[in-house]
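Hi C.,

You asked whether I'd gotten around to modeling the 260-residue construct. I have! Everything is below, sequence then structure, no commentary in between.
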Amino acid sequence: MLQGVINSIRESQVWSSIFRHGVPRDRRTRVMAIMSNVFLHLHPVAVRKSGIRLSFTWCMGGLTFFLFIAETISGVLLMFYYRPVVEYAYSDIIQMRAALTLGVMREIHRWGAHAMIIAVWLHMMRVFLTGSYKPPREFNWVVGVILLVLTMLLSFTGYLLPWDQLAIWAITVGSKMAEATPFAGMNGPGRELLQLPGGIPIVTPYSDAKFLLLAGDSVGEAALLRFYVLHCIAIPLAAATLIAVHFWRIRKDGGISGPM
């Protein structure tokens, strides 16, 4: 029975969209596993002719990648002059704006973030309208949706860093919305279904989505540090890894999106 379940999983569309070769049990499948490893071969060892043919494109995916690089470089430079503590966060932002070079750098980072949100939504719209989410690109579509979510999270976590009234109240509203997360928020549907033996609830005011987001009951110093680490390290690393996988699968699946 267990073998039947495993075989049905391996023969499913989800499995075949992620893994394009069998289990590496012989020399051929081991070679295929190595040759199709995105981390060993950022450029696929073989691509279709259509995948490298020049064609019309909005270039919104490329523009989004360019903005991600610009955001990374400007963000790293700004990290030298910003301290994620309550006593200095707001004053550091004010001092950056007062200095001409850092003020321009901060505005590039700020407006680049807005442009990245617009570009990634237009890119997703093109992919959807051209039907490029269909096989064999369904796995890459899922990767793109995750990248869209990460882009929104990058914008959300960066919103608190100026530590002004607008930032604090915006994150307060966002954390209130997190309370309504299904199965993970104190006021979300399905919370009562998650219980340990003995009726002990898993989701409590100290383990729900809002607490995980703020590291407390309200927006404070712990939330500022948590948002800083997420904005500068965790989410960018996850996004960079998925961008590499995304580009790799674009070339493997036949090039940029177009009518299917």
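If it helps when you're writing up: The first strand starts at residue 195 and ends at 196.

Thanks,
B.
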